[in-house]
Structure formats: C-alpha cells, structure tokens
Amino acid sequence: MMRTRPLKVALLGCGVVGSEVARIMTTHADDLAARIGAPVELAGVAVRRPSKVREGIDPALVTTDATALVKRGDIDVVVEVIGGIEPARTLITTAFEYGASVVSANKALLAQDGAALHAAAEEHGEDLYYEAAVAGAIPLIRPLRESLAGDKINRVMGIVNGTTNFILDKMDSTGAGYQEALDEATALGYAEADPTADVEGFDAAAKAAILAGIAFHTRVRLDDVYREGMTEVTAADFASAKEMGCTIKLLAICERAADGGSVTARVHPAMIPLTHPLASVRGAYNAVFVESDAAGQLMFYGPGAGGAPTASAVLGDLVAVCRNRLSGATGPGESAYAALPVSPMGDVVTRYHISLDVADKPGVLAQVATVFAEHGVSIDTVRQQGKDGEASLVVVTHRASDASLSGTVEALRKLDTVRGVASIMRVEGE
Amino acid sequence: MMRTRPLKVALLGCGVVGSEVARIMTTHADDLAARIGAPVELAGVAVRRPSKVREGIDPALVTTDATALVKRGDIDVVVEVIGGIEPARTLITTAFEYGASVVSANKALLAQDGAALHAAAEEHGEDLYYEAAVAGAIPLIRPLRESLAGDKINRVMGIVNGTTNFILDKMDSTGAGYQEALDEATALGYAEADPTADVEGFDAAAKAAILAGIAFHTRVRLDDVYREGMTEVTAADFASAKEMGCTIKLLAICERAADGGSVTARVHPAMIPLTHPLASVRGAYNAVFVESDAAGQLMFYGPGAGGAPTASAVLGDLVAVCRNRLSGATGPGESAYAALPVSPMGDVVTRYHISLDVADKPGVLAQVATVFAEHGVSIDTVRQQGKDGEASLVVVTHRASDASLSGTVEALRKLDTVRGVASIMRVEGE
C-alpha cells in the first residue's frame, strides 16, 4: 500500500510552532508515513532570519524567499505558521495556484479572509485546513465541521485565549488586581510584551468568527463579532462574582437566536457559575462548550497555545490533507449555505450584574427599579450596602436584550442619586 | 453543486437510537443535503416488530427482512443500530459485498471483530465508521484517528459508561451503598433490568479495546482488556477515598508502556484525585482524557448514551460517508501498522490503596511493611486505626507493577496477624 515517492511539504515560518512541526516531521517520520500511506518530506523552510541556528533542520532547506518556495511547483502541502495578514495571504493563494494544499494556524487571516481563501482553494481543487487556528491542540474545527455535521449546533461558548484565562485565574485565586496578574503573566511568558491582542479580546474575536462560521454554516466576519476586553475587570468584580457563586472568564460566545433565524458572536468578560464546567478551566488552558439539538452538551478541553500543542494540530491536518491528496479527493470546504444574518450586540439576550454607587437616602432603590422597569428589564435580585453616606446597589437582572440594558444604564447615569456605574457584567452559563 | 439523485440509506434497527436517526433524517433533510452535496433518502427500515407504530416513518419502508434490504443493490449506506454480534455482523459484511458503506454504533461487534470488518470494508472499497460506538455523542474516534494523527498518544483514560458513573456518583454524593444506588439507577432508567454488561465492566471493556486500537495503531481485542466490575465498591471505599482527597470512578485506561514497546488496556474502579478533571464528571455523563506527546492533556466531555446523542454521532458519520461516496474516496480505514504487543495486567504499573483488617498488637505494622518490601512494593503512607482489639491498616503505595502488588497481597493473606484484606483499589490520575 505504501507509495515510495514522498509528499513534499513547504514550511513557512520556523518560530515556536514551525520548529516543532519540523521536529515532529523528522522524529515521527515513520509513523507519519504509515498513517498517510506515503512518506512526507520537508522540502523547504522559509524564514526571516536565515542565520539563526535551527537544530535538526538541514540548513540547505532554509530560504528567505518564501514566494519562490511556494512557486517551486513540486510542493504538495504548504504549512503556513507565519501569522498575520500579509505576506501569509498572498503566499497561501499562490500555493493554491501552484497546485499545493494548505495547512494554516493563522486565526487572524482566516477570520478576516476565510471566505476568499476557501474560494481560492476550491477553485484550484486544493484543501485548506486550519485546526490549529482555534484553541491550539484541542480538536474543535474537525468535530464541529465533521462529527456534528448531522446535528444542529445552537451555541458555542468557550475560553479560547490562554493568556487572559491565566490572568483571570490568577486574579480569582489570589485576589490580585489586573495589572499585577498581567505582570506575572508577562514574567512567566504567558503574555507578550504588547498584550493588546489578547487582553482586548482581538485574538478571541478572530476565533469566535471562525467558530461561528463553522457552527452555523454562515459567513461570520471579524467585524461581525462584538468585542470587549478584560482590562477593566477588577478585584471588586471577582468579590461580587464570588458572592453570587460565580467566577469571571473572558468568553467567546456564538449563538443561534431562539427563533433560529439569526446568529450572534461576541467576546467579553462574563460571570459564570462555579458549577459550570468552564469555571474550573485553570491557568492557560482553553475549553469550548458546545450545545446542539441532538448531542446535547459537549465540552472540549486542552492546551490552547504553545509550540508543541499547536504543532500537534498542524500535523493532524497535514496527515488528513496528505491522505486526501493520495486518494485524489479534497476534504470538506467552506459550508456557508445557511447564510443566516448576523445580528448586532443589541439583540443578544442574556443576564446582567450591575454595580451602582448611589446616594444613601430613602427612595433611591425605587427610582432605580423604576428605570429598569421602564426599559423592560426585569430585576432578579438587588443587594444594597451603605458606606459613609454613600451606598452601593448591586442589581442582577433576568434575561434582557443588550439594547434594553444599554438604555437602562444610560438612563441610570442621568439620575441625580446615581453617582456612578461601577461595573456592568454579563452573566452566562446558567 | 447539488446532485439531485439521492443517496439511499438503509436503517437496521429502529429502537431508541434508530428512531432518532430516522427523525433527524426527516426533520433536517435540507441541512443534511446542503452539507453532503446531495439529498439522502431513507430507503428502508428493518425492524423486528413491524406492527409497532413508528411516528414519522412511512410504513411502506418498514420490513422485517433486513437481509433483503441490505441486498437490494441500490443502497449507498447501511446504518446498523441493532447491536449485538449476530445478525449485525453478517448484515454488515453483506452490505459491503452489495456495494454499501456502513455506519455502526455497535461497540460489542467492533471490539470483537473490528479487524475482520475493516478488512471486509477495504476489500470492497467501502467505508466503515463507528463514532457512536464509543461514548455516544462525544466526538472521540474522529479526533483520535484524524486530529491526533500527527501526534503520539500515550494514554487514554476515561469514564465511558454512564450507568456506572451514575451509580458511583450517587454513592459518592449520598453515601448510599452499591445496591441502593443501583436500584435508583434502575428506577430512573439509567440501568437496565439486567445491569451485568454495565456494572461488570463488559461495556466499558469493549470501548477500551476500540479506543486502544485506534490510539496505538495496534489491534487490541476484547480478550486483551483486563476487566473488573464495580459491584464490590462500598460506602467504606468512598469514605477512604474522601480521606485521600479522592473519589472513585470506573475507568477505562489504555496506556503505552514507559519504554513505548507495548500497550495495556484495562477497566476497573479506581480512586482519582478530586482535582482531576474526570473527578467532576457527574451523573450519566462520559468524559475521556487523552495524553499525547505534543498536544499534552486533552479532555472530551458529553453525554455517553441516549437516543438523540447517539443519533448525533451516527449522523455525523453518515454525512462523512456520503461525502466520501460523492468524491469517490474512502475515509481512513483500520490503522494497525504499529502492531505493538498487548501486555497482561501484571505488567501495569500504578499506585494502590489497600485496607487490611489486622490484629491490634505490637509488631503487626513491621510484619506488613516487611511483606511489601520483600515484593519490591514501596509504601507511600500508612494509617492505622484501632477498634475493639482489631485494627485497620490503610496502606497507599508508590508506583508498582500489578504483579508485584498481587504477590504482596497473596503473602499478606498468609500472615496470622492479617485477618482479612478489606479492599484493594488502584489510584490513578496523579
């Protein structure tokens, strides 16, 4: 059964992930060959700094000319682990034109240009696989796209950014503030020097766009994803969460509306009950909770980043693409037939936890409650605490639309007796 | 892109799972057609009791002659949800001979005859898929076989039987004894009238054989799996587990030996730390923990049984098989190239929790400790409690081979001062 002519792989990028891909391709060459049905050969490695010593990689394979490597014409699969939009996008489309399939770990690019890249792959009869783009080693794209292909997915809710989960877990377990926890994450290498992409939710939003698109068979662009970072989460928020039997996580949530006619995708910090499986996801781990009509509730858990875990996902895709190539078939392409409208954040329905600083005098609660009622937001619980002539009022609502809640908060800010809105946090997973 | 001639599906069995498969094929026909690229049509349903009213199924499709249905010659995919060895085995091989691919949920058959069935499928160029055979709705076969195809799996440890997890969870949370918890499981429909297959670990052992085979690219037969049921787990065992910060689960464990040269597969009750993700798997849920070289630790969680969840897995396979059929390819078949030897239980290395009833007199601990030392089993902790002239001695060992532990226990039983061995339980997940 074994074909002797090897399949040729071009590796674009040889950083943390790329070097692991190269290492495993070498050390596990026999296993990969047995599982694919033909040997795979590393035919070239495109890098920015050719002088850097790369253990285990033949220097003759290293080039700075990624374009020439992709255009060689004898490449079967291009593995793109450069990241970012350009030159990755052009290299991938060039790969398709020159007869190669592509395995990518590039969430930003897939979230922004997934539809165009899928179209290019299909035009040239090539595969585009990207399991590593979402939640690192956790098999998620394939289960959603294939295992649940006969089911109707209603909700995907997950912790898809390890950096922010590390920070929030640290704040939760030690009572540290955001800056202190971020500093520790940076010192330990969990956060980059510029943590913006993580802490402001850009990274998670890209993953949410990809997951929503696959789950709902609908194109969801990065711009469709509501995004709120977690830099304003405070130790006081965690204290409030604890009082409610909750913790705080940065969640990516993709939902089908109750009537099934539209979908939403969003990233923001939220309180979730300690009894929810996502609450116990610690450190830099990722986990994604999926709810579907027939399967019910599923959860996928594992390391969401790191060189070796991401390489595991890349290599799983590489094996699949190579098998497809040998059998002359391609795997499932983009599935966007449902083409559901993506609703704005205002249409999202969930619960809210609102902390207000108010004057400590009679009638304030009545005033505040009236504002909620006028906006159609039903209150579940209220807790009032006095402190030095001021008081804090914590309101937890029943389910209401984000638009109604925003209107409520705007009106609350105009009340003389409301000194300030200390925090607003959504409550999920109940 | 859409082909108009439908793919024809023969459904063998229309019980809890089969009726859900038929229902979803009808209610989600448009989605399935869009995802496959062609409509799928229920061409026939083989049942034992044709007179039973089956809502939503055209009575004209119902037949008692499963063989004739499979031999029709125009069937594309046979969905086998009868269970048991015969007639399922003959019907599946007949399906291949008559040009159909097969989706099966039959763990017993796959564990016993997987190799022969795969060979038959390959001989006729057909697919054999069986995601639903292990852990119901949880995508597990496909992630192991495809997502982790570029990685080296070292361990698969899971709760793969919902009935026993319900019973053990009940014992843990209420302090109930085995019989009381079993009675409740039966009353609630979680346990069958004859619970033997579940409580004696036969069901879990079949799943362990399937998982080990896929994880290690090695044929593992049902007979290769060490099996110990959970009928002898007592409330006292749970009390001991709690003192150690553990709970008790019936685990299926498939392991690669430390030297990589052999594998083991086993099912037995075991103590696991409360901090382990498997410890918090409640009720009838299933979860499987996977450890691999590159990906690290992954966990897959969800409903392990039930009509709709199992149907979700069956339909995911059905979509994949139909796609393969349209593209003229077949999916991954059996991968047993590694052909590693399966070692007996004696070679398994783990930790043990042993409760002994001993005479309450000086020198007993020294005697017992000597026996452990003579068999090369190192003791981690000992706890001695006196009660009315008798004493109980609880020993927790370091890692030792099962053979060494068995030898130790045999020798302990021969000591005059040891009145009895109250319980032996393995300790996992540390």
UniProtKB/TrEMBL annotation, chains A, B:
Residues in ACT domain copies: 353-426
Key word Amino-acid biosynthesis present: yes
- What does the entry list as the binding residues for L-homoserine? 192
Pathway noted in the entry? Amino-acid biosynthesis; L-methionine biosynthesis via de novo pathway; L-homoserine from L-aspartate: step 3/3; Amino-acid biosynthesis; L-threonine biosynthesis; L-threonine from L-aspartate: step 3/5
- SUPFAM superfamilies named in the record: ACT-like, Glyceraldehyde-3-phosphate dehydrogenase-like, C-terminal domain, NAD(P)-binding Rossmann-fold domains
Q: Where does NADPH bind?
A: 107
Q: Which GO terms describe its biological process?
A: methionine biosynthetic process; threonine biosynthetic process
Q: Which GO terms describe its molecular function?
A: homoserine dehydrogenase activity; metal ion binding; NADP binding
**EC numbers, comma separated:** 1.1.1.3
Task: Give the enzyme class.
Answer: oxidoreductase
What cofactor is this protein dependent on? Answer: a metal cation
Quote the record's binding site residues for NADP(+). Answer: 12-19
Alphabetized CDD domains for the sequence: ACT_HSDH-Hom
Q: State the reactions this protein catalyses.
A: L-homoserine + NAD(+) = L-aspartate 4-semialdehyde + NADH + H(+); L-homoserine + NADP(+) = L-aspartate 4-semialdehyde + NADPH + H(+)
| InterPro entries per record | ACT-like_dom_sf, ACT_dom, Asp/hSer_DH_NAD-bd, HDH, HDH_cat, HDH_CS, NAD(P)-bd_dom_sf
Keywords, comma-separated and alphabetical: Amino-acid biosynthesis, Metal-binding, Methionine biosynthesis, NAD, NADP, Oxidoreductase, Sodium, Threonine biosynthesis
Q: Which residues form the active site?
A: 207
| Job of this protein | Catalyzes the conversion of L-aspartate-beta-semialdehyde (L-Asa) to L-homoserine (L-Hse), the third step in the biosynthesis of threonine and methionine from aspartate.
Q: What family, per the record?
A: Belongs to the homoserine dehydrogenase family.
**What protein name does the entry list?**
Homoserine dehydrogenase
